[in-house]
Amino acid sequence: MTQPCLRTQVAIIGGGPSGLLLARLLHFDGIDSVIIERQSAAHVEGRIRAGVLEQGSVEVLTRAGVGKGLAQHGLTHGGFELASDGCLLRIDLERLTGKTVTVYGQTEVTKDLMAAHRASGTQMFHEASGVALHALGADRPSVSFDHGGQAWRIEADFIAGCDGFHGASRQAIPANCRSEFEKVYPFGWLGILADVPPCHDELIYATSQRGFALASMRSETRSRYYIQCRVDEDLDAWPDDRLWEELGRRLGPQVASGITTGPALEKSIAPLRSYVCETMRYGRLFLVGDAAHIVPPTGAKGLNLAIGDAHYLSTALGAFYARDETRGLEAYADVALRRVWKAERFSWMLTGLLHDFDDATDFDQRIRAAELDYIFTSEAAQRSIAENYIGLPFEDVLAGG
Ligand code: FAS
Ligand code: PHB
Predict the structure, then answer these.
(1) Separation of 313 CA from ligand 2 center, angstroms?
(2) 197 in a domain, yes or no?
(3) Ligand 2 centroid to 236 CA: how many Å?
């Protein structure tokens, strides 16, 4: 049986938020793409992950034609709370930066992108296996994979590696052509999703003698909470009632009185790591999102960085196909990495500030207490947190790296 071979302009590996959004943005520029995704559509649409979108991300998603659900169901937040041993401080995003964030789950973003993709009829392969990248240094790279018992090959002008941290794309860059930077944290986040009203009208990031906790939400009737836990924590050791009680202890009595408990719709543990791969480009391969970088979710940056990368790469590819301009493609990795590293710094700082570290010395504890005291008493410190949380501005990728 001959191997079917397709031809497209951009082959996109990975059909999560990065791949779906990139395909939508390219579509609006009349650029043809094909997505190759390892999992089933139901699996991708069922993932429960991020919850906070920067204003810049909302603008990109709206430009990609998926702003309607966001506008109707997204919750606009003008601030969030920091809680330290029960004392609350509101970081007033709107007063400090003039901007807000939107609470709208990644699950919904993914479903909106999938619906738009289906409506546009753009080709997408789900449940593809054995994905391999070829001829990345040539001007006709290709992707081979198995699908439906058939071996396929897709020839393209470019390949976008949107396949997350465990994907095939980053590994296709020769080890001597990439530098990797990683910090693995000695704890994870145990998350619970429940159809109960949120305990507060904005997010609460809490640090306490018992560890970190986060009170978030998906809507006015659905809440998302997290507590810091051991990396090897046994989920079975955390029945709902134990988790609700621990959340109340860590969020403090003032907040605990507002917590409505209920059965978990989902409960899971996510490890925390900071990771960056330099470079994000190798020949005709461009890495996007978690394929290139990972942040601890403390700063709500993971999904937003992925959206930023898709914005930069679609802008660069748009200029290439419209005007044969390569400056954006040449600058993509440098421009994207400048924004990535600043988000890595913010996420690392907030994680260090709000989590308990078993190996912390007495000196470390005093420094953390002083840092919290400084933030609670300095508007300049609060403004710095606010401008990072609402998202740093995009550079013009076409202006060159
Ligand atoms: P993704 O990992 O979402 O998508 C990659 C896609 O590629 C997947 O669909 C995968 O199936 C597919 N794929 C993988 N290998 C492949 C292969 N070889 N061939 C074809 N397809 C392949 N961010 C936040 O901001 N806040 C949070 O609270 C938060 N919580 C998270 C919890 C967990 C458990 C995880 C893993 C991440 C979390 N993140 C969070 C980060 C997350 O939201 C990512 O930033 C976001 O999903 C990035 O999207 P993608 O780059 O598309 O990567
Ligand atoms: C979430 O709602 O899942 C969420 C919100 C903010 C974060 C991390 C996760 O920083």
Answers:
(1) 26
(2) no
(3) 23
Dist. CA 199–CA 191, nearest whole Å: 16
Number of domains in the chain: 1
| Best of 216, 227, 294 for a ligand 2 pocket test (most atoms within 8 Å of beta carbon) | 216
Domain membership of residue 241 (yes or no) is no
Q: Rounded to the nearest 5 degrees, what angle is found at the Cα of 354, between the Cα atoms of 350 and 358?
A: 120
Task: Return d(Cα 136, Cα 86) in angstroms, integer.
Answer: 54
Domain contains 87: yes
Inter-residue contact 50 to 301 (CB < 8 Å)? no
Catalytic residues: 77, 205, 297, 301, 389
Q: How far is CA 107 from the centre of its chain?
A: 12
Mutate which of 52, 102, 227 for ligand 2? The one with the most ligand atoms within 8 Å of its CB, which is: 52
Q: What is the pLDDT of residues 308-347, one digit of tens each?
A: 999 999 999 999 999 999 999 999 999 999 999 999 999 9
Question: Which ligand neighbours the alpha carbon of 109 most closely?
Answer: 1
Specify if 37 maps to a domain: yes
> What burial class does residue 150 get, using C-beta atoms within 10 Å of its C-beta: 0-12 exposed, 13-18 middle, 19+ buried?
exposed
Arithmetic mean of pLDDT, 345-359: 97
> How many angstroms does the Cα of residue 164 sit away from the middle of ligand 1?
5
